[in-house]
Amino acid sequence: MPNATIRRCPWSEGVDPLYERYHDTEWGVPVHDDRKHFEFLVLEGAQAGLSWWTILRKRENYRRAFANFDPAKVARFDARAVTRLMQDAGIVRNRQKIESAIVNARGFLALQEEFGSFEAYVWPFVGGEPIVNRWRQLSDVPPTTPESEALSKDLKQRGFKFVGSTIVYAHMQATGLVNDHLLSCFLRAKEPRGRAGKGAAKSTVKATRRRGS
After folding, report:
1. Do 46 and 171 contact (CB within 8 A), yes or no?
2. Taking a C-beta distance cutoff of 8 angstroms, is the pair 190, 12 a contact?
3. Catalytic residue among 11, 22, 53, 62
4. Residue 44 known to be catalytic
5. How far apart are CA 78 and CA 139, in angstroms?
């Protein structure tokens, strides 16, 4: 099928082939690997106040800078590591974001210790299977949900940083806890497996941050 005939979620179109590839192969795909979850926690936290495209272009730099997203290694980063990262032009040089990644790595390890894995901790927040929403247009997609509010609150109580409900919902979208591909997207040609979520022709909720912003 010619690429021109493929309809994607609007936020992914007309930016860059890398962005389209991310949309086609990663966004909304259920993640059950702890290191991948940690990767997105680092990247979503780095995105705060920026566009996702800005962070996606720096992804491999983050992979290098943050020990291939190994939470055990990142948890051991010290003040010298923070200084080194603050001089790394390949990532967002924001001290709070860098230090939060280290704090979150330590919290991530604590969750693994308590629950056996981060996966075992996070998936119950959506009932153990993806929430498959039925949005018709980008403006229908909310910035937060009760599930992201609950997860955000729990993470904050455990000491995590940069895990507000909007950031957490973006993480849930990215890691497939929620499937927010629009009904018009080619990836919805075959109904994804999961439990039914919400969907409406019109939305009364205005999103303040979503992919592509």
Report:
1. no
2. no
3. 22
4. yes
5. 42
- The burial class, CB within 10 Å (0-12 / 13-18 / 19+), for 19 is buried
Distance CA 55, CA 94 (A): 13
pLDDT single digits (tens) 47-85: 999 999 999 999 999 999 999 999 999 999 999 999 999
User: Which position among 11, 19, 27, 52 bears the catalytic label?
Assistant: 52
- Mean residue pLDDT of the chain comes to 90
Gap between the Cα atoms of 88 and 83, Å rounded: 9
Quote the pTM value.
Answer: 0.88
Residue of 46, 62, 48, 36 whose CA lies nearest to 165: 48
Q: State the CATH class of domain 3-196.
A: mainly alpha
| Residue of 11, 19, 27, 44 marked active site | 44
191 catalytic, yes or no?
A: no
* Least confident range of 32-46, 54-68, 165-179, 199-213: 199-213
Residue 96 CB burial class (10 angstroms; 0-12, 13-18, ≥19): exposed
Whether 52 is catalytic: yes
What is the average pLDDT across 126-154?
96
Q: Cα-flanking dihedrals φ and ψ of residue 194, to 5°? A: 150, 180
Amino acid at 200: A
> Can you tell me the distance from the alpha carbon of 152 to that of 170, in angstroms, rounded to the nearest whole number?
11
Burial class for 15, CB neighbours closer than 10 Å (0-12, 13-18, 19+):
middle
Report residue 131: phi and psi, to 5°. Answer: -85, 120
